[in-house]
């Protein structure tokens, strides 16, 4: 497999992009190709970009509490388009929501304080599984 | 502050100390680290002495509280006269629920309100807009029209309680709603006290809730200044915010530099529109972050105050003392709170809040310990407020003004931060000013570099975060008591909107929106037109749409 291609996206209206940008840089420094969408993307924008850019994995960052709805929409859109791209999630995600998110099809949830090292190695693993 | 011969004596004695006492000690017990640094990567000395402040002139650089350059504070008596305003940022779900929380906080001794709006309200979407899906009532209260605002302040006397509203791109609309509610309560505009954040530049830099491009955004801000300096004399018409810049990863120097550079841009825009900085200057306020590094933070606040007074006097020829004073609100640093061992955050918040008080803040929000997990509960919000009350009433630091003044290290760092921030400001000036520097992505890139470096420092254990990369424990999952917003909120809010659109005089709304459009197209002051539209119950989304259509929308250039 060549370079892993990752889309880092911020769906919804939340503008806190420090985490997304820092993670995007770390993934790039770990040798991956990173496409960062910028803030305020609709689920459609994210899925379309992911398909256009032919990425191996999608990372979402959401801190506003809108993660359940947004993740569901994105995963449904991916299913509709028959795209088998694994999706991971970072941000302020209450512990209680994680089992449901995983059931929905989110591969991994990274909470505050997760090390960049852990994120990059996990992303490699998720992308490799694909 | 010391005589030449005394300084020489100290210098010689220091050399002796280094060669004898210190050397022996270090041989036996090496220091913990090779080098000790400030957050802005400057070498921190082992020990500061009078030598380090030899170029500081007491009367010129430090002076007295309430006098230029205001290093020791903007009021002559500071907290001996009156404590800072204890203003907790709160708001969630609907206007009804937030109204209850405000009344609770006021009963607990909070002295001002600070309203958190949800993201659709901040970005000018009604609750039934497709972009609002999943976001309604989440990070703040949902306000679609004057009707919601009437409920939000129901039973809260707006002539007695000062209201701060964290709102930027839609500030003109929310301020109009506040004015309209006050009028309904029988409170005239000139009695209203409070602050609107209204700082669009930091939205492009760090926070992301912009709507329009910089130019029309600046025009509307100047409209607010013009309208407000005539009609709202007791209101802070902007809160120029370093808080979000710091949260996005900036260090202390960058926080001061970029915030004051934003301030300069606003003052310039207002002067260009014919306003007098001696008049509107007193309605400016600032908003800073209180981060972890206690000593550096105290110095930062003092440096910012001094630097702003100098800029206003030397650059804009301001002579009115009230327009020279940098008044500021502080919030403790949300980004320093850990999801791991969350009770530790109470201690972090205490240290940070103490630095803000020792730095001379006018208003303070202390974060709740559970904010890395979700929205604060009533209990965690109460503890956060109690933290301020304990500092105010029990710690003793409020009994004498600026107690750390004269400390060698505090004065040396105050000067250092002032100088380094000024270097940044000069650099931005050469680039063509702050709006230009933001459009070029320069500021964003500087901040991201600092954010990435500080994250790497944590990863490499150069920076210790207790409970995160040292002293860790296996923890039970801990989100049991987190406040969750009922998904029903979104549906209820949509229903309310539907009813509003049926009940109101739609012809009048249409007419008022058209008048607003004409005013925008003819470059008039928009405030009176927005106020009229608001009073006829035009929604926030409808008003913002008019502005979007006339001025276009801003899309950031993505910078990594």
Radius of gyration of chain B: 24 Å
CA-to-CA gap between the ends of chain B?
47 Å
Count of helical stretches of chain A = 5
The assembly state of the depicted protein chains is: heterodimer
Give the tally of β-strands of chain B. Answer: 9
Quick rundown:
Chain A has 130 residues and is of the alpha/beta class. Chain A is 44% helix and 18% strand. In chain B, helix 10 (252-272) crosses helix 16.
What does this 3D model show about the protein?
The complex is a heterodimer of chains A (130) and B (560). Chain A has 5 helices and 5 strands, in the order βαβαβαβαβα. Chain A has 130 residues and is an alpha/beta fold. Chain B has 560 residues and is an alpha/beta fold. Chain B has a 9-stranded parallel beta sheet with strand order 5-4-3-2-1-9-8-7-6. In chain B, helix 3 runs parallel beside helix 5 and helix 12 (294-315) runs parallel beside helix 14. Classes of the chains: A alpha/beta (130), B alpha/beta (560). Chain A binds chain B through residues 12-18, 21-22, 24-26, 28, 34, 36-40, 42, 64-66, 68-70, 92, 94-96, 111-113, 115-117, and chain B through 119-120, 122-123, 125, 130-135, 138-139, 203, 207-209, 247-249, 335, 338-340, 372-375, 448, 451-452, 455-456, 458-459, 465, 468-469, 477-479, 482, 484-485, 555-556, 558, 560.
């Amino acid at each position: 497999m060549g370079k892993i291609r990752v889309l880092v996206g911020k769906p919804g209206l939340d503008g806190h992009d420090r985490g997304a940008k820092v993670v995007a840089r770390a993934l790039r420094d770990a040798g991956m190709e990173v496409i960062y969408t910028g803030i305020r993307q609709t689920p459609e924008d994210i899925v379309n970009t992911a398909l256009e850019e032919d990425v191996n994995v999608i990372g979402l960052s959401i801190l506003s509490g809108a993660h359940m709805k947004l993740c569901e929409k994105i995963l449904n859109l991916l299913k509709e388009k028959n795209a088998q791209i694994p999706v991971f999630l970072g941000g302020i995600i209450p512990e209680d929501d994680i089992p449901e998110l995983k059931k929905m099809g989110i591969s991994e949830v990274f909470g505050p304080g997760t090390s960049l090292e852990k994120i990059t190695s996990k992303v490699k693993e998720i992308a490799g599984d694909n | 502050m010391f005589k030449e011969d005394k300084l020489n004596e100290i210098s010689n004695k220091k050399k002796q100390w280094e060669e004898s006492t210190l050397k022996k000690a270090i041989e036996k017990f090496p220091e913990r680290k090779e080098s000790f640094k400030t957050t802005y990567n400057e070498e921190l000395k082992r020990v500061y002495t009078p030598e380090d402040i030899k170029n500081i002139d007491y009367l010129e650089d430090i002076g007295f509280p309430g006098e230029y350059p205001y290093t020791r504070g903007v009021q002559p008596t500071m907290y001996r006269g009156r404590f800072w305003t204890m203003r907790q940022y709160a708001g969630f779900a609907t206007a009804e629920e937030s109204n209850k929380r405000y009344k609770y906080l006021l009963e607990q001794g909070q002295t001002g309100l600070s309203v958190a709006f949800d993201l659709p309200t901040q970005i000018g979407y009604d609750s039934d807009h497709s972009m609002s899906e999943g976001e309604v009532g989440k990070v703040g209260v949902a306000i679609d029209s004057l009707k919601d605002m009437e409920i939000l302040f129901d039973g809260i006397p707006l002539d007695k309680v000062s209201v701060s509203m964290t709102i930027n791109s839609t500030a003109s609309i929310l301020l109009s709603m506040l004015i309209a509610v006050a009028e309904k309560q029988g409170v005239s505009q000139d009695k209203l006290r409070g602050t609107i954040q209204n700082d669009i530049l930091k939205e492009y830099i760090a926070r992301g809730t912009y709507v329009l491009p910089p130019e029309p955004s600046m025009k509307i801000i100047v409209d607010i200044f013009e309208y407000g300096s005539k009609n709202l004399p007791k209101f802070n018409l902007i809160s120029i915010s370093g808080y979000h810049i710091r949260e996005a990863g900036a260090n202390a120097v960058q926080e001061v530099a970029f915030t004051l550079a934003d301030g300069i841009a606003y003052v310039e825009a207002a002067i260009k529109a014919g306003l007098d900085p001696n008049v509107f200057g007193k309605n400016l306020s600032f908003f800073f972050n209180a981060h972890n590094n206690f000593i550096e933070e105290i110095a930062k606040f003092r440096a910012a105050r001094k630097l702003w007074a100098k800029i206003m006097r030397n650059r804009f020829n301001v002579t009115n003392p009230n327009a020279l004073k940098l008044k500021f609100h502080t919030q403790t640093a949300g980004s320093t709170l850990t999801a791991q061992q969350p009770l530790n955050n109470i201690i972090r918040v205490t240290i940070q809040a103490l630095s803000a008080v020792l730095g001379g803040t006018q208003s303070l929000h202390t974060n709740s310990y559970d904010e890395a997990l979700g929205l604060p509960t009533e209990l965690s919000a109460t503890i956060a407020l109690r933290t301020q009350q304990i500092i105010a009433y029990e710690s003793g630091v409020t009994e004498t003004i600026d107690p750390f003044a004269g400390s060698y290290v505090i004065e040396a760092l105050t000067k250092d931060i002032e100088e380094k921030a000024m270097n940044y400001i000069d650099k931005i000036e050469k680039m063509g000013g702050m709006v230009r520097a933001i459009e070029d992505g320069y500021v964003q890139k500087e901040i991201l570099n600092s954010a990435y470096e500080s994250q790497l420092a944590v990863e490499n254990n150069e920076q210790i975060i207790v409970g995160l990369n040292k002293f860790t424990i296996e923890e039970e999952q801990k989100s049991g008591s987190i406040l969750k917003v009922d998904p029903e909120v979104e549906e209820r809010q949509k229903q309310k909107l539907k009813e509003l659109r049926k009940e109101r005089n739609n012809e009048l709304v249409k007419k008022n929106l058209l008048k607003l459009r004409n005013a925008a197209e003819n470059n008039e002051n928009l405030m009176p037109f927005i106020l009229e539209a608001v009073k006829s119950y035009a929604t926030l989304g409808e008003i913002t749409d008019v502005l979007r259509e006339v001025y276009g929308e801003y899309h950031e250039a993505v910078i990594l």
